[in-house]
Amino acid sequence: MKPWLLIDVDGVLNPVMSGAAAKRGGFVTRHAYGPAGWRYKVHLSPEHGRWLVAMADVCDLAWATTWEHTADREFGPVLRMPPLPVVTFDFARAPGSKVPGILRFTAARPFIWIDDDVTDLDRDLLADSGTHHLVLEPDPHVGLTRAHLDQARQLG
């Protein structure tokens, strides 16, 4: 069974950058409404989508972002990605951590989690979980790189 490759959006596929830097880098800029109804500017690179789709030979892809289903509906098509499963989170029950939702979703299956905002609480929960996992933490000003996916491919 292939491991999950769990993908965050902000800071990973949507790096922190100016509109001019995004344009120079080949990113497509879109506006989307977040779960709370706020409108956000999002910079996405179709190249990231190609890299991720190419990982499907060794990993099963899923969204692990607070954008939840919005990522699949709004960002997946821009990235030219197929529809993906979505990890859902219950921050009322697990404030400040995506890990309980991730563990529920992966159901003890190995996973690679790519997220720029992994906390000490997340690390502690993962250490206590007994799961086989790899956490990759991109610089939020750079986002996803080929090196991250090379590391993921080693676990996959």
Structure, briefly:
The protein has 6 helices and 6 strands; from the N terminus they run βαββαβααβαβα. The chain has 156 residues and is an alpha/beta fold.
What's the SSE blueprint?
Blueprint: E1 4-7, H1 19-24, E2 28-33, E3 39-44, H2 46-54, E4 60-63, H3 69-78, H4 99-106, E5 111-114, H5 120-129, E6 133-136, H6 146-155
Parallel strand pairs: 1-4, 1-5, 5-6
Antiparallel strand pairs: 2-3
How would you characterize this protein structure?
- This protein has 156 residues and is of the alpha/beta class.
- It has one domain: HAD superfamily/HAD-like (Rossmann fold, 3-Layer(aba) Sandwich), CATH 3.40.50.1000.
- Helices cover 34% and strands 18% of the residues.
- It contains six helices and six strands, in the order βαββαβααβαβα.
- The chain has helices at 19-24, 46-54, 69-78, 99-106, 120-129, 146-155; strands spanning 4-7, 28-33, 39-44, 60-63, 111-114, 133-136.
- The strands form two sheets. A four-stranded parallel β-sheet has the order 4-1-5-6. It has a two-stranded antiparallel sheet with strand order 2-3.
Distance between the termini: 10 Å
**What is the count of helical runs?**
6
- Indicate the mean pLDDT: 94
Please summarize the sheet with the most strands.
4 strands, parallel
Primary descriptors:
156 residues, alpha/beta, Rossmann fold, four-stranded parallel beta sheet, 6 strands
